[in-house]
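Batch manifest line 318
LIGAND: NDP
JOB: complex structure
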Amino acid sequence: MEAEHIKCLIIGSGPAGYTAAIYAARADLKPVMYTGMEPGGQLTTTTEVDNFPGYPEGIDGPTMMVQLQQQAERFGTEVRIGMATQVTLSTEVGGMHKVTIDNEKQLEASCIIISTGASAKYLGIPSEQKLRGGGVSACAVCDGFFYKNQKVAIVGGGDTAAEEATYLANICEHVTMLVRKDEMRASKAMQHRVNSRKNITVCYNTEVDEVLGEQVVEGLRMIDTQTKEKKDIEITGLFIAIGHKPNTDIFKNQLEMDDTGYLITAPKSTKTSKPGVFASGDVQDKDYRQAITAAGTGCMAALDAERYLVDVETAVEA
Ligand code: NDP
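JOB STATUS: finished
ARTIFACT:
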């Protein structure tokens, strides 16, 4: 079967992908977007988004993503449901990148914007999965405000958990932090911040045994990993901060990544290690991970892609 040719292929449909699409469509790059398995990305699992500029009353995540899609489509982006399952990226400037969609459809793209995002890791226990959206969240900055003056818990011992525990301590009455080992992985400075807060209790050698509650979180059963002793505490919110996994499996051995799988881009640009392949959003950012920063790099990726295509066309004409 002959491969369909696409000028600008966008893989992923979070704020980075849609912003790239808006800019690419307006620049007449005729972008085609494949949404991936979770159209709209991580924001579709969030409730209220209060920190995206321009929405003084806040907006719920799924509505915001529908609006971003409409805005991208208004300028001619073609949004298709489908998953990129295999890629063969060209090493030549002006070369065609080959992409397989859903293990069957073949595409070749002059340039690609990768905005496949990262997925928050969860513990994977049934009671946690049941209460996702009912008090279990993987983003304190997004959802912490809903637990103002309430008791919450956070799982994890890395920099994210320490930072989010401190953030929650500013809003909530009390924060219980569960660290599975006898020490935190977080930097000393972050640990100091946690330890200096009176309303954070750090429980070492402690894991979640069960999240309590039927419709919403009502409490937490913790287990001491050494003594196996269990203890219940009352909480209304549980934050999981045990890391993120960038969605980069299909790019392994083709694009430069750091040791945790995040795509590496050239400083102050979205260029990856292959010409004509750009990365934006959480797939290349493990530090900020906000909708607005993802949108910003989506814009950068479309501008970088436009410049790349102009350079290639100019070289062909010369
Ligand atoms: P990390 O991978 O650094 O830490 C994950 C934490 O979660 C570890 O404490 C780990 O425990 C724990 N964990 C993992 N799986 C489980 C589980 N199943 N049950 C209980 N606990 C679990 O991820 P982060 O998101 O914290 O950080 C990612 C990167 O981003 C790091 O490089 C970090 O330095 C950086 N970062 C920097 C910030 C800053 O400088 N301001 C802020 C936030 C992140 P264990 O230690 O036992 O493996």
